[in-house]
Write a structure and sequence with these properties.
The model has no long low-confidence stretch (mean pLDDT about 90). By secondary structure, the chain is an alpha/beta fold. The strands form three sheets. It has a six-stranded mixed sheet. Strands 1-2 form a two-stranded parallel sheet. A hairpin with a 2-residue loop joins strand 3 (about 65) and strand 4 (about 70-75). It has 14 helices and ten strands.
Length: about 375
């Protein structure tokens, strides 16, 4: 703690090192059973989270804790820590032009025009500026940054179309057709269609749909035996949750612009009960929610997106509210499971420090 909670010293130190400051520590004043039952508590949360975060630390991982009067490490948590570090190292070592990034926007509540909204943040404009900044920094965003007709409003409008139940029902293969049809309607002056889609190329900057139909069997293989068993016990084929096509496939969709895949975060619950997971802590995320994150991480050569990092754009999303520990994730925490070792960047309003501290603890 050389910075000693001195912001200027911390900034100088971390800038000169130019590497992430990641907290990897066991619980020093709390037992493992207590952590498993109630999460990281009291003084231990200050030691492990609050004070390091004031010095610029990120990505805290609880490695173990007290067993009697001795400190024991949990091998699975150590492996989790190394996977996170590997994720950041892989991102650093990959040239910017080759980095594959996912940008995830929020869309709650469902089917009421909330796609691409967030508390105190202009998501369409922020999305547009983010893509242009990525282009400036050497990332591949296709032709979006140089297309004068491209706009964040059009990207959000396209994502809203992909989120419609009638479009999801047709499956992944028909989604580009749905976007193209809506663009044509906009050009003809259809007032029920977003006017921004009437721009040349729909204002999408060359972005195209990239979507997948995922079977439950493929999802089970991706999740692994332990987590898939929990999902299948909570969500039967009959109670399959949202995001399912007419053929019973889990639909994962987004739009691709260069090496950036932009998608809408899966729904937290089900329509009519959108906060279901928040209050039924013994549940798991529904299958399509799991598929969205799994196919985001899955390597491109294996039929996924192959993202090396994810940017959650807008406060607040849903992955931090998934079943699991309130503070200090363990193997049972779904946010920890679905994000895996993927570097996670969350963009939110800077005038909500209490939520920032809460959020940083949930990943």
């Amino acid at each position: 703690m050389e910075a000693g909670r001195n912001v200027a010293v911390a900034e100088t130190l971390l800038t000169s090192m130019n590497v992430p400051y990641i907290v990897a520590s066991p619980l020093l004043v709390q037992s493992i059973p207590q952590w498993k039952q109630s999460g990281v508590l009291g003084l231990q949360s200050v030691i492990l989270y609050s004070l390091p975060e004031l010095d610029g630390a990120i990505d805290t991982c609880v490695l173990g804790g007290l067993v009697g009067d001795k400190i024991a490490l949990i091998p699975e948590r150590v492996r989790k820590m190394t996977s996170r570090v590997n994720g950041w190292m892989n991102l650093r070592r990959t040239p910017p032009s080759e980095r594959k990034i996912t940008i995830m926007v929020y869309g709650f509540p469902p089917n009421v025009g909330a796609v691409g909204t967030a508390a105190l943040l202009d998501v369409p404009n922020s999305l547009e500026r983010l893509l242009k900044r990525l282009d400036k920094d050497g990332y591949d965003v296709g032709g979006f940054a140089t297309d004068p007709d491209a706009s964040g409003e059009s990207l959000v409008a396209a994502l809203a179309i992909l989120s419609e139940n009638s479009v999801i029902t047709t499956g992944a293969s028909k989604m580009q057709e749905a976007i193209d049809a809506r663009i044509e309607r906009a050009k003809k002056g259809d007032i029920t269609t977003a006017a921004t889609l009437a721009r040349p190329g729909g204002g999408l900057g060359g972005a195209k749909v990239k979507a997948f139909d995922v079977s439950r069997d493929d999802l089970d293989k991706s999740l692994g035996k332990y987590m898939s068993k929990k999902v299948n016990r909570a969500w039967s084929e009959k109670d399959r949750g949202p995001g399912v096509s007419g053929k019973g496939q889990l639909v994962v969709s987004g739009i691709q612009v260069g090496n950036v895949w932009i998608t809408v975060q899966p729904l937290l619950g089900v329509e009519g009960d959108p906060m279901r997971l928040l209050f039924e802590r013994d549940l798991t995320p529904h299958p399509q929610y799991c598929a969205g994150y799994e196919w985001m991480k899955k390597p491109e050569e294996e039929g996924g997106i192959g993202s090396q990092a994810v940017i959650h754009l807008g406060m607040h999303g849903t992955v931090e509210w998934l079943p699991g520990q309130p503070l200090g994730n363990d193997r049972q925490s779904w946010s920890d499971e679905l994000l895996g070792g993927l570097p996670n960047i969350y963009v939110y309003a800077a005038n909500n420090p209490r939520y920032v501290l809460l959020l940083a603890s949930m990943y």
